[in-house]
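seq:
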Amino acid sequence: MEKKKKNSKKVNPIPKGMRTVTPYLLTDDAEGLIKFMKSAFGGELTYSMKADGKIMHATVKIGDSIVMTADAPAPYNPMPCQLYLYIEDVDAV
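struct:
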């Protein structure tokens, strides 16, 4: 049997510009939340994807951190927070 070659390209487990822990706020008013983060914290909208008048995904940079948000899609309810945890070795964890 022929051995499969491992992909020698190293993948960074933490995407560029992200931190180890990134909050994701699923809300019923993502646009209002983005306006609030801009006004209250000097946030900068760095990405936004809309469909049918709803924000499907957006990222706001506050200082050196990113906060992700979206309008809660049916049938899901808004959630106070979800956390993305980026780690070096997911298999070890």
